[in-house]
Amino acid sequence: MSESILQVQGVGVRLSGRTILDRVNFDIAPGEFTGLIGSNGAGKTTLFRVILGLQATSAGDVLIAGRSRAGRHRQVGFVPQKFLLDPDLPLRARDLVGLGLDAHRLGVPRPSRVRRALVEEMLEAVDAGRFADTRVGRLSGGEQQRILIAHALIARPRLLLLDEPLANLDLRSAHEVVGLLARIAREQEIAVLISAHEINPLLGVMDRIVYLAAGRAVSGSTEEVVRADVLSRLYGHHVDVLNVHGRVLIVAGAGDETDLAGHEGAFPETTVVS
Amino acid sequence: MSPLLAAILAPGFFGSEAVHIALGVGTLVAIVTGAVGVFTVMRGQSFAGEAFGDIGTTGGSGAFLAGVGPLWGFVVGNLLAAGAMEAIGIQRTRGRDLATGIVLGASIGLAALFLYLTTTEQSTTGATVTILFGSAFAITRSTVPLILLLSLIVLALVLVLYRPLLLATVSPEMAAARGIAVRTIGILYLLALALAAALAAITIGSILGTALLVGPAASALRLTKRPLAAMLTAAGIGIGAMWLGIVLAYDSFEWPPTGHGWPISFFVVSIVFVLYLLSGLPERRRRHRSEDQRDALPAEVAAPESR
Q1: Which of A3, B73, B164, B205 could pair covalently with B60 via S-S, beta carbons 3.0-4.6 A apart?
Q2: Averaged over A216-244, what is the pLDDT?
Q3: How far apart are CA A193 and CA A79, in angstroms?
Q4: Angle (nearest 5°) at CA A232 between A229 and A237
Q5: For the stretch B136-161, what's the b/e string if a residue is b when 16 or more beta carbons lie within 10 angstroms of its beta carbon?
Q6: DSSP readout, A172-218?
Q7: Does residue B1 carry a pLDDT above 80?
Q8: Which of B202, B205, B187, B186 has its CA nearest to residue B149?
């Protein structure tokens, strides 16, 4: 029995003849903050679906707290990739957080002091008290992200998966969300696995990096992974890793491929506040 | 009777059994459609709701030809349609309108045949008008137990599914990650929608049923920011519209041309529509008053699949 909370063991996924994931291996310890870095189409979302048990593998297995299937939904919290909530949805931020507690149960939630207190505590933990009574669809991107995190955390998972939570966030919101997640990982001993196509916002906080390219992965500390030789081997062609004022730039060496993580400077230029 | 009441209610209002049944069934159906409708609007399935209404025409006219009550036709027709929609792929966001549209088209073709046969063979347009536009005054006493039973089934379904259905509506992904059987929940909800549309059809007519399903719910979504409160508000609006519609329809026997009452459905649908317009006012006023306050500024545009 290992003490890892998540073990990804030789996972392969093939979808209609295409290899999406190929022998992906890595472990995550409790309370560890891990960045899953890769460009669009590298297989990040598929890997999350495998971990959540929503995608069958063609090879390998995923163990949560040493177990293959049982109790997975209670152990793993999930924040999906940015989606648009209808601004007229009659659902306050606190209602969505409350659903995190008991959405799998049938029936209408019975109001109780315990339930209210738990929701209130969680709202405070993600610093969302100010907008707890606003309709979720009317919150800004960063505020919605906090509510989704609270929704995932209130069930007390041991592993929290976040699919591209920083995409479409402005610089400040991204910083705040990363800081919040790092604090939660540390204080509550919850392992955080966060996917991103951009490495820099996560540089200071990652205990571990899992770098995904074309379905294959390398994992280790940032120093072990973000190196020209390691990433060149992963990509299958030469890449350079440049350090610019404490930021990392990963650029294709000889070729003209530019769809690599960390391209175009520190933060994505496409950052847009909704 | 006080002079005021007498002025509002034409003589005999409370003595009429048709009025009793209409009021009772109208109340029940307004509650059911309010509860189901809130989810219909939230899930962006208003088109499917509309389709069930239209498909009910096929079932209703088929039932008339077969010599059974129209409610049976609405129920059986809608359940078959729900099965067909599910088989074609209503659960996928992209295939949703397509599945609905294909089933709707096929069904209306049948309705055209059935209604043609009804009018030519029986040389009466009464049945056609009743099926299409309904009349709560025409509901027979023997139908009431079935209406009650179906209403309880639908209400129970929506209340039992409430939490998983709500999360699956907000985000199917988040629901699936929680171990919720999103597809099963979707099928059960479609079932509830099909039955609710059948109940709406028997009350205000098959092609007007959507008005009761979607109208009060859409108004309620503007007025409250909590799902259960929205269901209650929608039910309240529906009940108000039904009652006022029934009173006006009863009174209209005395309006010119005398002896020909105006249809209840016309009044109910008009009231629902006016209430929907009015329900936008508080929001508009709030937005006007606090132009720069964050609460009034929607963070995102509406979900793309809302329809």
Answers
A1: B73
A2: 88
A3: 10
A4: 140
A5: bbebeeebeeebeebbeebbebbbeb
A6: HHHHHHHHHHHHHHHHH--EEEEEES-SGGGTTT-SEEEEEETTEEE
A7: no
A8: B202
CATH (domain of A190): 3.40.50.300
- Mean pLDDT (chain A) is 85
A91 touches chain B (CB under 8 A): yes
Bridge pairing between strands A216-220 and A208-213 = antiparallel
H/E run at residue A267: none
* B299 contacts A139? CB cut-off 8 A: yes
A28-42 per-residue burial string, b: 16 or more CB within 10 A, e: under 16: beebbbbbbbbbeeb
Rounded CA-CA distance B289/A158 in Å is 46
Contact B295 A138 (CB under 8 A): yes
**Does residue A119 lie within any of the structural domains?**
no
The number of distinct structural domains making up chain A is 1
Query: CA separation (Å) from B303 to A27, A167, B42, B233?
Result: 37, 18, 10, 23
pLDDT value of position B288? 65
Q: Measured between beta carbons, which residues in chain B are less than 8 angstroms from residue A106?
A: 160-164
Please give the pLDDT value at position A212.
92
List the domain range (segments joined by +) for residue A157: 6-89+151-252
pTM: 0.84
Phi, psi of B45 (to 5 degrees): -110, 25
Beta bridge partners of A5: none
Question: Tens digits of per-residue pLDDT, B151-174?
Answer: 999 999 999 999 999 999 999 989
- Percentage, residues of chain A above pLDDT 90: 41
The chain B residue lying nearest A140, using CA atoms, is B299
Q: Are B244 and B238 in contact (CB under 8 A)?
A: no
Q: Which domains does chain B have, with CATH numbers?
A: 3-283 (1.10.3470.10)
Neighbours of B169 (CB within 10 A): 23
Peptide bond into B257 cis (omega under 30): yes
- For the cut 50, the answer to whether the pLDDT of residue A262 exceeds it is no
Pairwise pLDDT comparison (A241 vs B282), residue with the higher score: A241
Q: Quote the pLDDT of residue B301.
A: 42
As for the ipTM of the complex, it is 0.84
